[in-house]
Amino acid sequence: MPYFGSEDVVKELKKALCNPHIQADRLRYRNVIQRVIRLPGVQEYIQQPILSGLRDKASYVRRVAVLGCAKMHNLHGDSEVDGALVHELYSLLRDQDPIVVVNCLRSLEEILKHEGGVVINKPIAHHLLNRFGCLIPNEEELFDILNLLDSFLKSSSPGVVIGATKLFLILAKKFPHVQTDVLVRVKGPLLAACSSESRELCFVALCHVRQILHSLPGHFSSHYKKFFCSYWEPHYIKLQKVEVLCELVNDENVQQVLEELRGYCTDVSVDFAQASIFAIGNIARTYTDQCVQILTELLGLRQEHITTVVVQTFRDLVWLCPQCTEAVCQALPGCEENIQDNEGRQALIWILGNHEEGIPNAPYVLEDFAENAKSETFPAVKMELLTALLRLFLSRPAECQDMLGRLLYYCIEEEKDMAVRDRGLFYYRLLLLGIDDVKRILCSPKSDPSLGLLEDQPERPVNSWASDFNTLVPVYGKAHWATIFKHQGTDHCGPELPHTNFSYARQLISEENKERVQELPDSEALMLIPNCQFTAEYFEKTWLSLEVAHQQILPWQGEVHPDTLQMALQVVNIQTIAMSRVGAQPWKAYLSAQDATGCLFLTELLLEPGNSKMQISVKQSETRTEILSRFISVLETVIGTIGDMKS
């Protein structure tokens, strides 16, 4: 090799390091790097070939080049840290090869040791944790790492405990007994989180408890009282607790759980009361007699919203558990007077048509429904009535012939709904073929009461949901979250968020407010850029130069809570420039947003003293009426949602 310091050394070095035959041989390539890098005065020549090695397509070339960076710095420690080299190593933390990632961490730690070592920010930490399973080559190292993580399961922070639990579950995916042991150990922290004063933490913890119960059904059974509802808890937490209670029922606690649920059935919240009744219905699939007795007692209260749901529950029970048919039929007479809901009427008609042998007055109850068919607005009720009357006609023709004829005539000649009319024509033509054909088609064999309920689905293995633990999947559900993820457009690398489609933000709006959101085709949906910041000076200058493009008034009650409003606006990528403090009169806020085409939306919110209305003024950098109307729709939905939460 020529003497060092000449131009020939550079050529020789580049030739050696770029030689594909040398690169193809891992040992030769490493030897060249190790030999050349130790020579004095060669640093300025070696840096460029090493940078090229960091970007090489072959993973083993990148592995050696990364280690070469640390050796180069170590052997020439008197030189300053090269920022470009450090940046290149940080970027390789996202390399697909796990050994390259490990070597990067070691090299960065060595190069930056005088500055405190490698800096791990939140995005890098999340990425490395997600890749942790690929970085552990053997079982011995796996358990060494699990032992190091063990202390985090005892942390006082629920976030740390849940994060460590997920890491345990992923790393121990080949050791189910280790996963089960970890879930047993985090039972206490999860129960504490379920009783937390923080409603958000409590709700998320309950969602994760439900996820664990998919694999370990009896995991929290001994602590079932922890999931009893308190009167001050919000509606969404009560619903989660009721769902958990359904999964914790066993022979020892069934009586206590049912008594607790019976108390919820008369709650002032109609939705919560009905959810509790449905929960009793779910438990009835296993503990039929106790549940049917409670449901029958609830019918005696003669309250419309209770009777409606009890009848729906009875319909499901007689289909799934034929052995309870007799008790259900004895409880039904008289309940038709307290059912005004469409779903409840449909359920009652189905029971009357399928189990008429146990209900003597079934034809007379159906006759009342048939006489009111013209005023019935729900097509499904009419179709169910047709089927029930035809079934009843086969067993009790004398009582049903006249009313069936009148109902068929109305459905065929006067009914405007085509589905109902077609059902009526089908049954009429079926009757023309003969009673035997009607029975063969309409009256399928009934379930044998001696047959029990089909077994539930087998327990899901922990590995089927371990990757979803400590994410929003347990909160939204896998299918719903997949839809949100699709709308959000998350095909990206790195911590930055993509441009967000408002169709994602609609998923975060409550059900009752979804009707206010205008459905837009994906190709025309409003795309607001996240984290688009404006300085106050730029906003003021632009605001003064534009005319008001839209102004309207929205209803509002009480004071504005800036933190809540600002968080809701951030969900849809509307940034807050300035906002008055709580209680200020008049109250003002200035907002900014920018869509994917560069169009600016500058907004002023104004709430006058003693006024129950909020004035919205929007200025637009480009005159685009259609896009403006969509932005207004977004803003209306957010403000309307916050207003509903306050009320």
From TrEMBL:
It holds the Pfam family B2-adapt-app_C. One of its GO terms (cellular component) is clathrin adaptor complex. One of its GO terms (molecular function) is clathrin binding. It is a peripheral membrane protein. Keywords: Golgi apparatus, Membrane, Protein transport, Transport. It comes from the Eukaryota. Its main location: Golgi. InterPro entries: AP_beta, AP_complex_bsu_1_2_4, ARM-like, ARM-type_fold, B-adaptin_app_sub_C, Clathrin/coatomer_adapt-like_N, TBP_dom_sf. Gene3D superfamilies: Leucine-rich Repeat Variant (1.25.10.10), TATA-Binding Protein (3.30.310.10). It is found in: Golgi apparatus, trans-Golgi network membrane. SUPFAM superfamilies: ARM repeat. GO terms for biological process: intracellular protein transport; protein targeting; vesicle-mediated transport. Residues 528-640 form the Beta-adaptin appendage C-terminal subdomain domain. Adaptor protein complex 4 (AP-4) is a heterotetramer composed of two large adaptins (epsilon-type subunit AP4E1 and beta-type subunit AP4B1), a medium adaptin (mu-type subunit AP4M1) and a small adaptin (sigma-type AP4S1). Interacts with TEPSIN; this interaction requires the presence of a functional AP-4 complex. Interacts with GRIA2; probably indirect it mediates the somatodendritic localization of GRIA2 in neurons. Component of the adaptor protein complex 4 (AP-4). Adaptor protein complexes are vesicle coat components involved both in vesicle formation and cargo selection. They control the vesicular transport of proteins in different trafficking pathways. AP-4 forms a non clathrin-associated coat on vesicles departing the trans-Golgi network (TGN) and may be involved in the targeting of proteins from the trans-Golgi network (TGN) to the endosomal-lysosomal system. Belongs to the adaptor complexes large subunit family. This is AP complex subunit beta. The lineage of its organism: Eukaryota, Metazoa, Chordata, Craniata, Vertebrata. The gene is AP4B1.
